[in-house]
Design a protein that fits this description.
The protein has about 250 residues and is of the alpha/beta class. It has one domain: Rossmann fold. It is about 35% helix and about 25% strand. The protein has helices at about 45-55, 75-85, 105-115, 120-130, 150-160, 180-195, 205-210, 235-245; strands at about 5-15, 20-30, 35-40, 60-65, 70, 90, 165-170, 195-200, 215-220, 220-225. The strands form two sheets. Strands 6-7-8-3-9-10 form a six-stranded mixed sheet, sandwiched between helices. About 40% of the residues are buried.
């Protein structure tokens, strides 16, 4: 069976003066449909570089990246933009919503770029997604009229607009209070159970505990890839896993 994501011998090398810096140093891994994966590590470990390449926001220096069976490692910027819109959803720490645009219009944006749906169908799907994330009555509100947790729910609805097989989340609770963080992570858990693949970067052990698989990185390499045998972990178990991986 083909993997949804498969990378082999991936490198991302930056030149700083005369010294090459390996942001990714020969990484290989696979991710399957419906997995909920947390990528962890300290600043400079390579986790954000990994997410950017997996999300087709950047390209590797060398190595292979198969996304849904298609090689994307050497695609042009235009081709990558099309792949992102067609197959990928994104949720960012800072929400990245258009400030003077309603929640409904923010959710509609991905299909505006793709142009797959009629205006009526696009609006109906956006309304359905806002209802799905618990904001059915807030469709006319702008981001300034919404709490941080509500803004992140709008961002999740937007990420789902084009029905992508995978959603990438970059520190999705970094700007949220504890209550909102729990609500957002419960929503990601529900989406994963529905078969959507979630790949999340986080440095918080309690947030990573919601994932069933934990990839710990250091110096551009995968130090541990815990496939979640035995079910979900507690925060303390995740903390111990990271400690062992980096010791």
């Amino acid at each position: 069976m083909a993997h949804l994501i498969e990378i082999k011998d991936m490198y991302k090398i930056y030149e700083l003066g005369d010294e090459p810096v390996h942001a990714l140093d020969g990484v290989s891994l696979t991710v399957d449909d419906g997995e909920f994966v947390a990528i962890m590590g300290s600043s400079g470990s390579g986790k954000s570089t990994m997410l950017n390449i997996l999300g087709c926001l950047d390209v590797p220096t060398k190595g292979s990246y198969l996304l849904d069976g298609v090689e994307v490692a050497a695609r042009s910027a235009t081709e990558l933009a099309h792949i992102r819109n067609e197959k990928l959803g994104f949720v960012f720490q800072n929400f990245n919503l258009l400030p003077r645009t309603s929640a409904l219009e923010n959710v509609e944006l991905p299909d505006l770029y793709m142009g797959r749906l009629s205006m009526r169908a696009r609006r109906r799907r956006a309304l359905e997604l806002l209802k799905r994330v618990g904001l059915g009555g807030r469709h006319s509100h702008t981001p300034a009229q919404l709490s941080g947790g509500q803004q992140q729910r709008v961002a999740i609805a937007r990420a789902l607009m084009n029905n992508p097989p995978v959603v990438f989340a970059d520190e999705p609770t970094g700007n949220l209070d504890t209550k909102s963080s729990i609500e957002i992570m419960n929503l990601f858990t529900e989406l994963s159970r529905e078969g959507i693949t979630i790949v999340m970067v986080t440095h918080e052990d309690d947030i990573a505990a919601y994932a069933k698989r934990h990839i710990v990185m250091r110096d551009g390499r995968v130090m541990r890839d815990d496939l979640g045998e035995g079910g979900m972990k507690t925060t303390e178990q995740v903390s111990q896993l990271v400690k062992e991986a980096l010791s």
